[in-house]
Amino acid sequence: MLLNTLCAHTCNSFPKNLFYFLKHGLIVQRLLGKKPNCSGHAHVSTKPSSVDWIKQGRTIHQNLNDNRSSNNSVCPQPLIRSFHRETVINGQEDDGSGGRQTSAEGLTLHNLTHRSLVCVEGPDSVNFLQGLLTNDVNLLGSDRPVQYSMMLNAQGRVLYDLILYLKDSKIFIECDAQVRDEFIKTIKKYKIRKKVEINKVDGEWMLQAVVTSSLKGNSASPTWNESVFCVTDPRVKDFGWRLIHHSSCDKVCAERIEEKDVSLYNERRYIWGISEGISDLPPGECLPLESNLTLFNGVSFDKGCYIGQELTARTQHTGVTRKRLMPLVFERVPSGLQPGCIIVRADGKNVGKYRSSFGIHGIGLIRIAEIKGELSVHSSDGDILKLTTHVPNWWPK
């Protein structure tokens, strides 16, 4: 009755095919045993007002025109879903794939063989790590199961870059595989009488990453297997996801994700300007703020004391960080470059140091004020390589 009255009073204001979609959307919801909810919020009354129907109609009419202009065709299915976003086929919700197995476009899966997992468990685990790492370990919880952090030496230089995961009351710590044993040995020095157990778990647990090929960030999250512990990357959330699961798990998600070598993962990291491991962060040589620790949400300035805190806090409160790790793009694939090679401007002025690269993409420590224009670096065999750098789009504006 309401729909017929609306048609009679507004037929001169809206196209006739609009009411087809209104009727169709109403019928679909009635068949599903649901009451129409035009506002998208909780029902306040059992009867939608004519004003709500008209507003929804205008929205659909605009969508209809947009579809015509972009596709030159009209598909009623998305418009029906503007009234009810679930379509049931044979008792199952339709995901738009028509029952076919879908693929996660632009995503790739990588086994992080260059990274290792260390498990810290016991009643004193949080307090133990709180005095060693730059981030506030007390913030780990069900609503924040992952965080980035660093361990510094007494002089405030970076020893290890770490990612912490809270799973089943255990804290898994991701570190560079080349320094895993050294990391365990170092933190055990501070164990004293604390009730904690520290073990390497690489054989039992597998660490993987799913990353996007787009610099615009993640698409919709895949449907992860229930046995997979999955979190967004704590450094740059749009870069992708970190996965931890038992080594016996053979399928991480419902969608098909192409598995690629870890070298492609590293290249994409460099495209984004994300540092990781001892090749990008030589132990004992790097300052944490120049290594983008604050941009990676990896430090707390009000948690209290930890090793190397004094220099880090003093540098932060001066408000000046003149150099940072930034992405490099070479004119061709570099050869003969050693970590620490000097990067210069056209006039020969020193603007930074090369750290590492894969393909034509790399990372280096650059003076922020000197990033414009063409730069160059001299390789060990006397070759001169031209390169450029830029501010990553995920940096705060």
Q: How would you describe the overall organization of this protein?
A:
The structure is a single chain. With 397 residues, the protein is an alpha+beta fold. It has 3 domains: 92 residues, no CATH class; 165 residues, Gyrase A, domain 2 (2-Layer Sandwich); 68 residues, Beta Barrel (Elongation Factor Tu (Ef-tu), domain 3). It contains 8 helices and 18 strands. A hairpin with a 2-residue loop joins β1 and β2. α2 crosses α3. The protein is globular. The N terminus is likely disordered.
* Largest β sheet strand count, sense and barrel closure: 6 strands, antiparallel, barrel
| C-alpha termini separation | 54 Å
| Helical percentage | 10-25%
What is the alpha-carbon Rg in Å?
27 Å
Could you give a quick summary of the protein structure above?
This protein has 397 residues and is an alpha+beta fold. The protein has 8 helices and 18 strands.
What descriptive keywords fit this protein?
397 residues; alpha+beta; Gyrase A, domain 2; Elongation Factor Tu (Ef-tu), domain 3; 3 domains; 6-stranded antiparallel beta barrel; 27% strand
SSE order and pairing:
Blueprint: H1 2-10, H2 16-31, H3 50-71, H4 76-81, E1 88-89, E2 92-93, E3 103-111, E4 115-121, H5 125-130, E5 146-152, E6 158-167, E7 170-176, H6 180-188, E8 197-200, E9 205-212, E10 229-232, E11 240-246, E12 256-260, H7 262-272, H8 309-318, E13 323-330, E14 342-344, E15 350-358, E16 361-367, E17 375-378, E18 384-389
Parallel strand pairs: 3-12
Antiparallel strand pairs: 1-2, 3-9, 4-7, 4-8, 5-6, 6-7, 9-11, 10-11, 13-16, 13-18, 14-15, 14-17, 15-16, 17-18
Helix pairs in contact: 2-3
